[in-house]
Amino acid sequence: MTQNPDPPESAAHADADLADVRDLADVPAIEVISRAAVMLMSSAAEKLGLSDPDPADSPHLDLDEARRLITALAGLVTASVEYLGPHAGPIREGLQALQRAFRETSAHPDEPGKGPGEKYTGPVY
Question: Mean pLDDT across the stretch 76-90?
């Protein structure tokens, strides 16, 4: 007697994953890029402690992680700015706000042009 390696609930889960992939294929690229940018922004804000009343005392404060997220966001925005259309301005403003918040939060701020993502965006003051 052979056993089915995929129990019925596993097969149902695989079908749901496949449906998600099909749905993603229907999503315009600009929406995927915008969602990725918002996810990076939100995560960076959390790592800067901006969701807490006193960011300096936030248990989520992690400047190393924030630097990585802001740099990734800067690369994404720089590479896709021509496709962002009306979303470009607000996303760029959000990126610059995060870069400034990082500078303000850091005990030893990077020199202009050396902060997170500034190799892509240029210096942020």
Answer: 94
